[in-house]
Amino acid sequence: MKISQRLQQLEPSATMAMAAKAKELKAAGEHVVDFSLGEPDFPTPRHICQAATRAMQEGHTHYTAASGIPELKAAIVRQYQQRHGLQYQPNQVVVSNGAKHALHNVFTALLDPGQEVIIPAPYWVSYAELVKLASGVPRIVPTEEAQGFKLTPQRLRESIGPQTRVLLLCSPSNPTGAMYTAQELAALADVVLEHDLVVVADEIYERLVYPGHHFTSFPTVRPGLMERTVVVNGVSKAYAMTGWRIGWTLSPPQLAQAMAALQSQETSNPCSISQHAALAALEGPQACVEEMLQQFARRRQYVQQRVTQWDGVSCPEMAGAFYAFLNISSYLGRRYGDTPVENSQQWCLALLEQQKVATVMGSAFGAEGYVRLSYATGMGELEEGLDRIQRYLQSAQ
Ligand code: PMP
Ligand code: GLU
To answer: Is 173 in the same domain as 304?
Structure first.
């Protein structure tokens, strides 16, 4: 059966593909250290699971409004008010099946065929594919490691063409862990206002920010940005709820209405039980977020300390999220045992085969010569995995 042209061009998610490979090897009895998927290894906190059980028992097992239950929308509004001083209304919230689905809604609702979205690289694997799926054109704009992988106003200005409609910002960043300061965001906002762009601000890692760094929500940095920004967020990362599939957008009401209409045709509501669990996450005790963050902070420090000891590998300081983005370019064009390795994909595959460590190649994030390592994994696994990577690096000829 012939597959549509649109889907023939769709790349499957590289993060998901590497995770699947790691799982296959594990199922075959191998001890694989899995640094591939960006997913907290902690169980979803107990009070959130209990809220889900209660929701089922109380009969919240039917369709809800397609864009989400009013209580959850109100909690999301409250959260942005309390944390960032932004006053949204409930009709500006659309709750979706994870932030990935929210992004799909956004691009589908915003883009006409041929319109461009500026995506600073390195970028999370799904952005470019989701833009293409919505008939848009990703305009990939490289950033420099020396500038902390951050887009500069000048580079942004140079990248805007007649078809450019949207700028996508992910801060803290998957895959680099970089985070824009308020000043840096304000400088980008000036260009955005000058050129009448819409900003999609993916803030899903906003709660995972390390000591010494301060998160700023994009619409706060200049007046008038709420009207031209779509904020994307969700519970997957902060509350270890990746499987529950709840994410959302905050946007101008007209766009929210369009996305709600789209969702009413495509998926109806996100899972009713998960919505009640997400409500408990936002409204319940927040100590769990702090506790997980402390563990991530310990792991981050350990990764940073190990990696700086590796000859020829560099890794900028991670301000947030739980990824290390290693520059392994000096380890390409070399042999590992009998295997010649020319690019990051081959490097990752040989690492998986020889040392049983799963990582994701930089090329999937638009940055050849790099590799992403997710440290959302236990300390023991982290030590073992880094030992193995070290052995692999030492074996390069
Ligand atoms: N944005 C970024 C930057 C991510 O890393 C992820 C990870 N999955 C998502 C969005 C999607 O999250 P969700 O699990 O809520 O779909
Ligand atoms: N966002 C995570 C990652 O980058 C989860 C997998 C995915 O959704 O791509 O690994």
So the answer is: no
Residue 246 CA, closest ligand 1 atom number: 15
**Which pLDDT belongs to residue 93?**
98
346 and 386 inside one domain: yes
Ligand approaching nearest to the C-alpha of 202: 1
Residues 52, 13 share a domain: no
SS3 sequence, the chain?
CCCCHHHHCCCCCHHHHHHHHHHHHHHCCCCCEECCCCCCCCCCCHHHHHHHHHHHHCCCCCCCCCCCCHHHHHHHHHHHHHHHCCCCCHHHEEEECCHHHHHHHHHHHHCCCCCEEEEEECCCCHHHHHHHHCCCEEEEEECCHHHCCCCCHHHHHHHCCCCEEEEEEECCCCCCCCCCCHHHHHHHHHHHHHCCCEEEEECCCCCCECCCCCCCCHHHCCCCCHHHEEEEEECCCCCCCCCCCCEEEECCHHHHHHHHHHHHHHCCCCCHHHHHHHHHHHHCCCHHHHHHHHHHHHHHHHHHHHHCCCCCCECCCCCECCEEEEECHHHCCEEECCEEECCHHHHHHHHHHHHCEECEEHHHHCCCCEEEEECCCCHHHHHHHHHHHHHHHHCEC
| CATH number of the domain where residue 72 is located | 3.40.640.10
Domain CATH for 341: 3.90.1150.10
Q: Are residues 24 and 61 in the same domain?
A: no
Average pLDDT over residues 342-347: 96
> What pLDDT, on a 0 to 100 scale, did the predictor assign at position 198?
98
> How would residue 117 be classed by pLDDT, with cut points 50, 70 and 90?
very high
Q: What pLDDT, on a 0 to 100 scale, did the predictor assign at position 17?
A: 87
Which atom of ligand 2 approaches the CA of 36 most closely? 10
Q: What is the pLDDT of residues 122-167, one digit of tens each?
A: 999 999 999 999 999 999 999 999 999 999 999 999 999 999 999 9
> In the chain, how many domains are there?
2
**pLDDT (tens digit per residue) in 266-320:** 999 999 999 999 999 999 999 999 999 999 999 999 999 999 999 999 999 999 9
Do 34 and 103 reside in the same domain of the chain?
no
Same domain flag for 307 and 265: no
- Cβ of 37 closer than 6 Å to ligand 2, yes or no, is yes
Percent of the chain surpassing pLDDT 70: 100
State the chain's mean pLDDT as an integer: 97
Q: Domain range holding 148? A: 47-283
Of ligand 1's listed atoms, the one at least distance from the Cα of 103 is 10
Q: Ligand 2: does its nearest atom lie under 6 Å from the Cβ of 13? A: yes
Distance 309 CA to ligand 1 centre (A): 31
Looking at all shown ligands, the one closest to residue 38's CA atom is: 2
Q: Which domain-ending residue is among 227, 262, 283?
A: 283
| CB distance 38 to ligand 2 below 6 Å | yes
Shared domain check, 68 and 25: no
